[in-house]
C-alpha cells in the first residue's frame, strides 16, 4: 500500500495507552533497544537533504536525477539495482511490513491467525497482528535476505502504524513501538538502512532506531514540523505530496530541509521536485 492509511489522520484520536496483548499473543517491551551486535554492524547512513525518487509501479526509469531510489523489492530485479548503483544511486527496497498483500510470493507464509481486517481502499491487503513477533520476525528476516541479495542499500517498511487503524486486533502504542523496533533491529543486523514510514506520533521514541523517514502528505495535513527530529539528527525525510502544487509545500520543505517531491497516487516514474 503506497498511499498512507493516515489520509484520515485528522479524524483519529492518538492512541498512547499501554494495554494488554489480549488473545494470548506475545507482548514485547516497547523499551527494547537495539543490541550491541546490531549497533556495531555496518550499513548506509543517508544524510538530511539528499534527493530521492519513489516509483512502485511501471518499468523503473533509471534516468531520474535523484541520489536515492525507493522501489518495490519483489518486482525489481537485481539487474535494475545494479544499473542504479552504476549511476551512483543508493537504492531502497519497499516492503509492506505491517500488512500482507495477496499476490506476493510469500503470502502463504503468513498464518491465518495473524491476518486481520482489510486496509481501507486496498481490498487485497490485510493488517497483521504485530504482537506476534515470534511469527513476523522470521518472515521479515527472509524478506530482508532477498532485499540484500538483490543489492539494495536500505528498506522502507510500510504500514507501521496499525495501532491507529481498525486492524481487527486490539493493538497498543507500546506494541507498535516493539514491532517497529524489531523491524529496525533486524534490518541493521542484515546491513541495511531502514526508514520509518509515517507513524508521526511515535517519531520522538523511534528516531534513534531509524536512519531516515518516509512521509506522505505532511504538508497537506500540516504535520511536517513533527518530522523535525529526523532532520535535527542529520537524517533525511523523504517526503511526497499528491494533491498540492509545488508552490504550496516547497517553501516549507526548504525551510525544514525535507527531501520533497510531488507524485501521482499510482507512483509511476512521474515526479516533480522542489526547485
List the helices and strands and how they pair.
Elements: H1 36-40, E1 52-55, E2 68-72, H2 78-86, E3 90-96, E4 99-101, E5 115-119, E6 122-128, H3 133-149, E7 154-158, H4 173-189, E8 193-197, H5 203-206, E9 212-216, H6 228-232, E10 237-241, H7 246-256, E11 259-262, E12 272-273
Parallel strand pairs: 1-2, 2-3, 3-7, 7-8, 8-9, 9-10, 10-11
Antiparallel strand pairs: 4-6, 5-6, 11-12
Helix pairs in contact: 3-4
Describe this structure in words.
By secondary structure, the chain is an alpha/beta fold. It has helices at residues 36-40, 78-86, 133-149, 173-189, 203-206, 228-232, 246-256, and strands at 52-55, 68-72, 90-96, 99-101, 115-119, 122-128, 154-158, 193-197, 212-216, 237-241, 259-262, 272-273. The protein has a 9-stranded mixed sheet with strand order 1-2-3-7-8-9-10-11-12. The chain has a 3-stranded antiparallel sheet with strand order 4-6-5, with no helix packed on it. Helix 6 (228-232) links the parallel strand 9 and strand 10 (237-241). Helix 3 (133-149) runs parallel beside helix 4. The radius of gyration is 17 Å and the shape is globular. The protein starts with 35 loop residues before the first helix and ends with a strand.
Strand order of the largest sheet: 1-2-3-7-8-9-10-11-12
Strand content: 15-25%
**Overall body shape:** globular
State the share of residues found in helices, binned by percent.
Answer: 10-25%
Number of strands: 12
SSE class: alpha/beta
How many strands, which pairing sense, and closed or not: the largest β-sheet?
9 strands, mixed
Return the average pLDDT rounded to an integer. 89
Indicate the low-confidence ranges by residue numbers.
Answer: 2-40
Compressed to H and E, one letter per element, the order equals HEEHEEEEHEHEHEHEHEE
Multimeric organization? single chain
Count the DSSP helices.
7
Distance between the termini: 28 Å
Measured on Cα atoms, how large is the radius of gyration?
A: 17 Å
